[in-house]
């Protein structure tokens, strides 16, 4: 996740040059970061936000929201699509929002993220290649680097991924150099299942 200073700088540049600031909340939106949207963590706000994925719990639905002066700019009928307003997907989105509220998934995302961060931080003592743990809520990344040079270490990330897979846990490597493991588990994951995953992660990093 971007530091607040970076977001503030982007906002300032956009304001100075008349640029529309767009926040991509397709993956980070709907409780993932411990707030309904990742931008809720920042004082500076975007002009537009894109959203999809968790919006309808897997049903095909995406959306754009933003300031009225931008959203109201197209003339009636000037903005649309073949599948716009699909009633089944809209119903799914309503159900998702109800579940986020009723099951307090923003708070749960924050709590699960704290548990994962603690497990990864503990694992750093026995895994010198685990250079950084970062993120917000349950959108967490673990970056692996060579402890001597600081260079990205994709093989270390792949080693942890392989060990975890042998114990039944799927992990996803990503990043420009393939040296990052990112965590995007369901926020509705049962606690006992999550605890077992944490045990596997700790074992895989040894």
TrEMBL record:
Reported cofactor(s): pyridoxal 5'-phosphate
Keyword Transferase: yes
Keywords recorded for this protein, A-Z: Aminotransferase, Pyridoxal phosphate, Transferase
GO function term, MF aspect, one: 4-aminobutyrate:2-oxoglutarate transaminase activity
Protein name: Gamma-aminobutyrate:alpha-ketoglutarate aminotransferase
Alphabetical list of PANTHER family matching this protein: AMINOTRANSFERASE CLASS III
EC number, UniProt record: 2.6.1.19
Catalytic EC class: transferase
Pfam (any one): Aminotran_3
UniProt-listed InterPro entries: Aminotrans_3, Aminotrans_3_PPA_site, Class-III_PLP-dep_AT, PyrdxlP-dep_Trfase, PyrdxlP-dep_Trfase_major, PyrdxlP-dep_Trfase_small
SUPFAM superfamilies: PLP-dependent transferases
Keyword Transferase: yes
Coiled coil: none
